[in-house]
Amino acid sequence: MPFRRSLCTQAAARHRRRIQWPVKQVTKSNFSEALAEIKACILNSDYVAVSFKQTGGHSAPWHKILPIDTAETAYFKAKHAAERFQILQFAVCPFSVKASKLIAHPYNFHLFPRDELKVGMPSYSFSCQSSYLTAMAQEGFDFNACIYNGISYLSKAQESATNVQIGHLSPSSCTVHSSSVHSVADSLFTERIRSRVKNWIRACKDSNKTEDALISSLRKLISGSEVYGSRPSLNIDVCSECQIKLALETLKEFVDVVPLQLPKRGAGVQAVRAVLTSSQEDKNLLEKELQHMEQEQRERVLGFREVIDLISTSQRPVVVHNSLNDFAFIHSKFLAPLPLTMDEFRSSLHLIFPHILDVNHLMKEIGPFEKMNNMPAAISYLERRFSGSIDMDISSQDTDKVNIHGHNVLRVCHLFVKLCSILKISPEVPEDGQSHLSPSLPRHSNIFNPCSSNSTNPIEDDVRIWTGNSRTISINNLVFLWGFESGISARSLKDLLCDTHDVFSEEFDVRMLDRTCAVVVFWTPGFAECFLRIIDSGEIISTKLTGLISGGLKAAGYETYKRVCESGLRKSDLADCLDQAMDETEILSGTVKSQQEQPVIYWNNDEMINLNDL
Amino acid sequence: MKRSYLVRALTRTRNRTSLLTRSLCSSASQPSGADVALKNVTKSNFEPALAELRHHVREADFVAVDLEMTGVTSAPWRESFEFDRSDIQYLKIKDSAEKFAVVQFGVCPFRWDPHSRSFVAHPHNFYIFPRQEIVGDGLSYEFLCQTSSLEFLAKYQFDFNACVYEGISYLSRSQEEEALRRLDSLYKDDSSNASSNFRNGVETQLISMADILFAERMKNMVSEWRAGLLREGGGGHEIQGNLNGMSQKFQTTFFHMHPALVVNGLTSRQLRLIKLITEKHFQDLAYVYVTGETSSRQPLIVYTDSTTDRESLMREVKACQRKEAETKIKAAIGFRQVIDLLSSERKLIVGHNCFLDLAHVYNKFIAPLPSTAEEFVSAFQTYFPHVIDTKVLLNLDDALLRIVGKGGTSLSKAFGLLCRPIAPSSSSTVLAGKPRVIVEVEVDDQRFPNWNSGAKHEAGYDAFMTGCVFSQACLHLGIDFSSHAAAVDLVHNEKLQKYINHLYLSWVNGDIIDLKTGKGAAESLGSTSVKRHHPKIVFSNMILLWGLPSKLRGKDIKDCFCQVFGRGSITSIYHLDETAALVQFSKAELVSDFLILKDTLGRDNDPISVLHPLSRIFESGCVRAASYETYKEICSSPVSELLFTDQAKAVGINWNTRLVEQAIGSENQDDETCEKERKINAIPICQDQGKTSPGTSVSDTQSSCHFPTDELVDSFYPSEAQMSK
């Protein structure tokens, strides 16, 4: 095809000077071959590292996961991002560690949510952030290759939705448990089918005998017989799910008949087709044929999901860099829509991926480390601090090509092995073949770290309040403030608040969440509640505070913030969102009083949730 | 039986074909002339191309435009339907223009050349991309992509790499103003309390041991450097001794006649520490961040003689930075310069079915779209006073419509029918023997007769085709170009007057909007070709149902309704998507009757309710109903969920039935006013009561209110008398 590739080849050339690792690039054209390859690789490896490129992260500063986020709110934020943005490139790298040597098989899949089935799936639309696309362009990403030749996919949930639409071909999938309750109409329906099929079978079998050809064909015509391949078939019209079941059930009574469901254009099943086979062997043959057809269709329909399924069924530990974000995306794109709560998410994920290892978390085991999210920096930092480099052995067939994509997954592997060696964890899996995980690793698996701010702020406008190392604060002590002059600095806001009320006489901190909203941390327990009460009741003691409040200052507790996160981060300014949530609270108050136990959040970014605690 | 389904299917296909036909034909048309690439403009050649375009636009008689976007509808139910009232049509267009990005912009100025008695066209194809060039207030530019639209673009070999890598960025007028305002406030603050702000504005803490050690080392190094300066009287002292390892990172230089230390190759955290110690320990040193000669920003530690010297230096630096930021903003305007050019030249703009294009132009390059079509067109007219739409022209002029036929008003078909040289075989067509306007193409000072860009389907080529169609159409309307010595004044030509500034608000239902008034204009045009609905759509007779089970067909709904309200009570049923439908009653009263009935059925669980014919629809318990106004409210939300039911939930509508005003009993006197407003707003047929209630004016923001169902049921409890009515 005459693609205009001049630009992208230039772009590739520009990045040629970087270290080139051979990463196998997979698009639609070589997908089936790569699928077979990677299947073998996954089964021969001890771990699978994954890493991907998405089209966006967070659209407003407070949409990213902040240290003040609890596991729950962090999940809401990750969910929001995962639902809107798209994965364009997904790197998978099965690897093992043998004699402290890293053996890796990196594959980089180009994805595009092309609607292969013309049913509006996998994705009607998706959001892009131009900064993310620009960053991908800087790395030489080929958007044409992605959109023209990217591999499509369907999530598990989408697959089950389309299964009805495509129609189950194979009879094995038509398992019908007989329903006990039958209405009169149902019985009539079944009875009619039974007699019709009986007549039809008789007509078909009779035709072998010496009957008048005209009569035989007339009989066939009357019974509505058609031909499926070389076999006679009969269509039974159905108009509801219940009737499909009944028809299938009735057809089971006939040993020579194989039932098929005919899909309707759009959705649903239009008719059940009964195919008459001549013998048991013939029946087996037909069933095998149908199974094969379904398998082929499966591959065409599922696309990249097959790789996810391979990783899942292999039960290999999955190594990622930022587990909450990465698995929110994986869950939403390849499994099912994200559930409403973190707990459901964890348990749903646990069924599919029993062992998840987060290098970010392992990194924190070593100690507080500023740039955890910048992997090259993390690697070079660790290389400098801890001696002993890792040997990497990368196997790939096409080493002659310039491969600029999917290197991150190798960095994840590298970092993982390095961290294991620093933490004195042996990543080598014992040869007994029983366990998929090295004995010392379970302690570190399935931990979701919600706090991963990947801010690389320039030095000027960066006023952060990082107090102490892991000083924790209950969310009860946090108060969200908004309605002040837009663009004010945290310091000025703190100065402004300082002597307005007694609650500000003790230690407190202010941190800006975006230009419209700040969070105030009261280090003295009870002060936050007290402050909220004062704002609420309007019994103002100091004139200065009155001035602020009449200027539009508003305050809310953590509950309101949580509701904002839960409702889906609709607006870009946190103040607008909090305002809206407050309005809703006023209406709800009196009817709903949520009395839940208040989790403790960590004022430093060290909170972990352990999946195994479930 | 499947009428309502058909309606939906038809509108769908029509939408799709209108999208598709535009390009299908270009592939069908044979490349007849020289196969020349049209003028592609990207970041790299934008400046010279713009200069050239300025000249061409100034000389042009009209300018044809066309846009390629990353999508059209953000959800299936956001497609244009025939049962959309004009305000809803506008809301759908607004949503589309706000969410999707423009990736290609075709501009093609046409000039009448009296010597060659032909039009000369200069097709330009701009790749644009909303790259974020200036750092705003933390919000990042985001746009939606419709998967099918990207596939469509890919099918016609759109170069996405050119767009992302080389696309020209832009700032709208309002974005520019906002950026300048932000800059203003930033530097005003700083000048008023520059020094104080500077001293305590930044708070970096020494957390780790490494930080403390590094800071100490830096402090020593800087003080040594300063001591050296003082010793040698400001000579070119280089750091020696134990700091050898660092010396390549620190070099002495001069900044504004002051000795300064360049700090290179450090991380941002280290720089922050250096800044901290400089400000904390050295009164006569200033830490500044300036743009060096090489245009990359670099940090400097500058030695100053006195506090006043220091202050003046800081002011100087600030002024420089401000100027630099302003230049950056000016540079970020980018592609908007083309729009400014078209606007300032006040030329006739020609587009094909271009209302959505214009909405994009306004939203991307001028300001956020206003909330009503009237406001939008009046604002738009101040920038572009003369717009003509070839689709309107082809459909409303009977002679033209005869030539192209009903199905031939899509751009590429019309181009094929009107502008392609007559093949000998097609001599039997209506066009045979008629004169035609010759259009020549000029790309980079080269002229081509019978130009064809090949099979490429691009904005620049589409703009060219639009202009060609327009020039031929003018000829058919009897506008004689060749008889005039100079160019024809198209803007004031009386034969075009009734078409100028008339655009299709929605092609699906043929509604035409007059840009001068913002009103519908179909009647004034008096054309026969305006589509008529059968049966006529009466919005006040409609109710909106959502949360429907996906298997429920239009016929089922109709049957149930007819059992309750009588045969003929339902005029039509339109599906929005599989979860929602609009039901049109034959009489307006039935709307309120139905809503009351629905509410009662939802509340009572007695056998009568269960056996009620309507319970077949409502049995799932999640079916909601409301009047047509709710449809508008849901459309006006910035959210776009895939299914209408989810959308309604996201907008915050989660009551069961939105009743009409009469149904509200006397017991809910002390309800939230907000709630009252909502109800009143939602019901146009209860105007008299609405007026007495305070604050009935706007309801946009009220979509945020949530009601728990129980509370609502109480408040909506209708009195017995009303029930028996």
TrEMBL record, chain A:
SUPFAM superfamilies: Ribonuclease H-like (SSF53098)
Gene3D superfamilies: Ribonuclease H-like superfamily/Ribonuclease H
Cofactor(s) recorded in Swiss-Prot or TrEMBL: a divalent metal cation
GO function term, MF aspect, one: 3'-5'-RNA exonuclease activity
Family from the record: Belongs to the CAF1 family.
Protein name in UniProt: Poly(A)-specific ribonuclease PARN-like isoform X2
UniProtKB/TrEMBL annotation, chain B:
Stored Pfam families: CAF1 (PF04857)
A GO molecular-function annotation: 3'-5'-RNA exonuclease activity
Obligatory cofactor(s): a divalent metal cation
Domain of life: Eukaryota
Stretch list, region Disordered: 686-706
Biased composition (Polar residues): 689-706
Family to which the UniProt record says this protein belongs: Belongs to the CAF1 family.
Name assigned to this protein: Poly(A)-specific ribonuclease PARN
Species of origin: Sesamum indicum (Oriental sesame)
Encoding gene, per UniProt annotation: LOC105176592
